[in-house]
Write a structure and sequence with these properties.
Length: about 220
C-alpha cells in the first residue's frame, strides 16, 4: 500500500510539472487547462490554484451523478494544481518558435508518463475523468460523446476568456492518448502483482477502484 501511495503522489506531482511545461511553451493547451488559464487571466489567481479549485467544483458534480471519489481523486485535486504553481516560476519560455514546440512536446510526454504512473497506482480517477464516466453511467451517454461535449464546452469558454488555443491544443489531443495507452501498463500495480505470483498462488485482489484509460485533462 505504501508503494502505491508513493506512486500516486509522484505521478500527480510529475503530471502537474508536465502541465506547467506545456503552459510555459505558450503554443496552446488541452481544453481544461485552456479553461483554467482563461479564468486565471480574468481573475488574477495563479493558474495552478484555478486548476485545484476547478477540480473541487467538478467533484461536486459527482454528487448527482452518484460517483464515489477515491484517494486518487482527492489527491489529484490537491496536488496537480499545486505542482503547476510551484513549477512555473522555475521555467522560462524560449523566444524561437521551434524550441517552444519541443518544450510543449516534452511537457506532453511528461504528462502522459505521469498519467501512467498515477493511474497505475489504482487509487481512482481524477475528477474530470470521473465526470465523463459519471455522465455515461447516469444517462447512458457514450464516453466519447460525454468527453467531447464537456471538453468542447470548456475549451470554448476558456478561449473566450483568453486561454491559449493553438498548435499545442491539436498536438495534445493527438498524442496524449497513445502515450497514456503505453504508459499505464508499464506502471500498473495490479499487472505487476499478477506477474509476481507463482502459478499456485491465488489472484491478488486490489481495493482500488478500476480506472478507465482516457486522455487525461488537468
Amino acid at each position: 500500500m505504501f508503494t502505491r501511495v508513493v506512486q500516486l503522489l509522484v505521478g500527480l506531482a510529475l503530471f502537474g510539472a508536465g502541465c506547467a511545461v506545456m503552459i510555459e511553451a505558450g503554443i496552446g493547451l488541452d481544453p481544461w487547462t485552456v479553461f483554467a488559464e482563461g479564468i486565471s487571466n480574468r481573475t488574477g489567481l495563479g493558474i495552478g490554484w484555478v486548476v485545484n479549485l476547478t477540480g473541487f467544483l467538478v467533484l461536486l458534480a459527482w454528487i448527482p451523478l452518484r460517483q464515489r471519489p477515491g484517494i486518487g481523486t482527492v489527491a489529484n485535486i490537491l496536488l496537480v494544481g499545486t505542482a503547476i504553481q510551484l513549477t512555473l516560476p522555475l521555467l522560462s519560455t524560449p523566444e524561437p518558435w521551434l524550441p517552444r514546440v519541443g518544450m510543449f512536446l516534452a511537457g506532453t510526454l511528461l504528462v502522459g508518463i505521469a498519467s501512467g504512473i498515477y493511474l497505475g497506482a489504482r487509487w481512482g480517477a481524477g475528477p474530470r475523468d470521473g465526470l465523463m464516466t459519471g455522465l455515461h453511467e447516469r444517462f447512458g451517454w457514450p464516453i466519447w460523446a460525454s468527453r467531447l461535449g464537456v471538453e468542447a464546452t470548456v475549451l470554448l469558454v476558456g478561449w473566450l476568456l483568453g486561454g491559449t488555443v493553438g498548435l499545442g491544443t491539436v498536438l495534445f489531443a493527438v498524442l496524449i492518448g497513445p502515450i497514456v495507452h503505453v504508459s499505464v501498463p508499464l506502471f500498473d500495480r495490479r499487472r505487476s502483482s499478477r506477474r509476481a505470483r507463482t502459478p499456485d498462488e491465488p489472484p491478488v485482489e486490489s481495493d482500488a477502484p478500476a480506472v478507465g484509460l482516457s486522455a487525461p485533462g488537468t
